[in-house]
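User: I'm designing a mutation panel for ABC transporter ATP-binding protein and want to avoid disrupting the core. Could you give me a predicted structure to guide residue selection? Please restate the sequence first so the numbering is unambiguous.

Assistant: Good idea. Sequence first, for numbering, then the predicted structure tokens:
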Amino acid sequence: MRRTLPQAVPFLARRRGVLLRLGGWSLLESAQTFLGGYGVAAALDRGFLAGQPVVGLGWLAVAAAAVVAGGAATHRVFHRLADLVEPLRDGLVRRVVGSALSSAVAGRGGRTGHAALSRLTHQTEAARDGFAGLVMVTRSFVFTTAGVVVGLATLAPALLLVVLPPLAAGLVLFIAALRPMAARQQDFLRTDEELAARIGSDVAGLRDIVACGAEARAADAAGELIDAQTRAARALARWAAVRTLALGLAGQAPVVLLLAAAPWLQARGVTAGELLGALTYLTQALLPALNTLMTGLGTAGTRLLVILDRLTGPDEPPAPGSSTAPAVRAVEQDAAAGAVEPDAAASAPAPAPAPDSGPRSRGAVTAPAGARPRTPGPRQPAPQQGTPAEPDAAAPSLELRSLSFSYGPGATPVIDCLDLLVEPGEHLAVVGPSGIGKSTLFGLVAGLLEPDRGTLLIGGAPVHRPDRDPSAARRALIPQEAYVFGGSLRDNLLYLCPGGVPTSDVEAAVRAVGLDGVVRGLGGLDARIDPAALSQGERQLVALARAYVAPARLVLLDEATCHLDPAAEARAERAFADRPGTLLVIAHRLSSARRADRVLVLDGVSATAGRHEELLERSPTYRDLVGQWHPQAG
Ligand SMILES: Nc1ncnc2c1ncn2[C@@H]1O[C@H](COP(=O)(O)OP(=O)(O)OP(=O)(O)O)[C@@H](O)[C@H]1O
């Protein structure tokens, strides 16, 4: 109201002539209302009850003629209405086109363009229809009520004593409910839009959601919006009940009171005809007008306010990456929470050798004696607003204590009582037979899955779902199915850096992971890319460069290099190993396991960790895997 009224008042003031003409024709409609009740009263008192049926019929004919004249007046009202609502639509269209052009000139095309199209077509039409409806119901109510009040006063002023108090009380209740009802209507529209946007983006990103194992998270997020919409709908329904109460008070209570007070009114000289005339006013004129007003104002009116607010309010700036699937964005741990400070492990002295406490449980695995700190990597982006609290630099990069997880209440645990310590800067390869739980473990570490039991700490802090974890930007999971969206290569690479980073850092990431050839081939960082035209390996390189330039300290590569040839994979993995931070890789080649500081072997019975040579001696599962890898990998 605050934003819309200041613009509505001058609009109406410029159209005083149209409003006067509308008022003039509406006055004729009031005459029809007046004559409707008065004619019935006179027909009874002066005609039929007085033994003069011809006079009675005459008065009824007067009332009928008034209806015909009122119809002609209503016809003229519709003509005048066009003079009021068409300029509103034209003004809104001009405004939307102007603002879309300004956005396009300012380089904010895409999303703003789509929004402008919807505003130009659906929303301006809805505003025009809503405004027309509002003018009609308000006008009709005002002039009908005027006709009824004058009619009742003319018949017998005592009738007003019975009719006016409940009418006024009902109107006051209705007006008091308008504001909260508008707010609830706005809540409902907002939640409806949020749900539609979420489902739209989930459908568009379905392949990636499935590829990243983010189904549960996507379902949770949509479920929360559905719950919010249900709450909004219930709140709206409660206010609709208040509106019905107001209608009952203003429209139906006067009828009941009139009947109940009939003896009292008759004692004050009110005739049977006057009582019938009053009833005609209430049931034939006031009640329908009230009903239309309350329904019209309560729904169309509040919707009109919301639409006008959007059409005349400021443009929404396009959200970075808004065309992409939010669930996938969360999977890749978008860095919305802020960029990371220079890595603690890069500047800290080498961590003290972790005491090997031996197996603590079935899956007890501790950090290696002297995991090496990373050599300084590319310059990290400066801290941004919203950067989560610095984690405990002395804490292990990743710590699992008795961690257990199964996919269902009765299912066999995939991860069972696993203990693991990974020191800052360590490079850990996770290996194991197919289906043993490697991706599940990464899903737990990324916060996409919730453990059934046990503790999971990253940098000493508990892990939560990415969308509820201010530290989520400190970890990045790159799944096997690389997420690449249509847009510039630069947009794709900066997907996890909403605050942006210098071009030199992007170029360093591109060189480090071996994407430089692809960038040159495509025509530079600002070239637009068609995801479907890239090979699977090229898409993986894009995802790797994106993770490399991101502020994440803990990078999880879940077979993220499986489409690269061994040399390209080696280059990418070395780049991540040299980058500040901790690296966890699901290895599917011997070379990948050998490059790691330590290897974690999952075999379903126990978890074992150690250097490649140690494991060849200690772990039969590892020996088997190496035996299978040997012929192809080297
Ligand atoms: N969403 C799920 N619901 C139920 N069971 C699942 C789900 N995802 C995985 N599993 C099961 O959990 C077990 C571990 O799967 P996971 O994908 O973690 O293994 P993996 O070691 O990564 O396999 P691979 O090497 O073949 O990718 C498998 O038995 C798998 O069928």
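For picking mutation sites, this is relevant: The CA atoms of residues 76 and 223 lie 51 Å apart. Confidence is low (pLDDT under 50) at residues 316-364, 366-389.
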